[in-house]
Amino acid sequence: MFITRRVEFSASHSCYTPALSDEQNRALYGREANGHGHNFVVEVTLEGEPDPVTGMVLDLKRLKQILEREIVGPMDHRFLNHEVPPFDRVVPTPENLAREIWNRVEPHVRAAGVRLHAVRLYETEDLYVDYYGGAA
Amino acid sequence: MTRLTRRYRFSASHRLHAAPLSEAGNREVYGKCNNPFGHGHNYVLEIGVEGPVDPGSGRVVNVAALDGLVEREILQTLDRSDLNAEVPEFAVVVPTTENLALEIRRRLRAGWAGAFGETGPRLARIRIQETRRNIFEIMEEL
Fold first, then answer.
1. Of A65, B2, B54, B82, which one's alpha carbon is 20 to 30 angstroms from that of A59?
2. Do A131 and B62 make contact, defined as CB atoms within 8 angstroms?
3. Following CA atoms B80, B64, A83, A39 in sequence, which dihedral angle do they give, to the nearest 10 degrees?
């Protein structure tokens, strides 16, 4: 069975790599190369069987606490490139952001005895990324 | 594995009418969708692209190139169109949203290598919302 919890955070980012020229960054990322912000929406999907006693795959209060501590706390109302490692070194594209969220959440979910199935990150309503772990 | 999905919108009209069926048969199968004057929808199209995340750019796909491909191959002809009259395929097959999904896949495949090269990311998923209540989806298996 899959269960999904959704959280939101608002942050700024700039998809820009110093390894390339301004023109190359503009060609690669378009207007995303500018500093700007989004209301990011994260959907975290877990896979597991309901506990025979509690009837729950994982207590969603516990998942909420993990997401608050690992994602919303550190990222909400921040400029990702300047304030949230590793995005001082890694371009905060939605692809990289989805994987970073996976990396932050997965150990805690696993410790709770549940498998993380997917992280979906909406940058806008019209663009989202799904990451299922493993090679990005 | 990483999949990037982009959402697009287009509005078009269609009439569901299968030539091999009788008038009564068409009314029975398609109901209100068989109205001779046709009717329209605000379609919402999602296109999912899979591939390795380039370590330098942090991207699966160049989103501007994807937008350009979809604009050229899909939106320019389908948006504000009468599907039955303006899409040659639908002179032959019924423009159900199942068939529309297949037609969109055919068009994307035709332009894919031109937009992304032979080693680019792969088309992984097409999802069309005809209305909020009717959704059609094709997953491309690896």
1. B2
2. no
3. 10
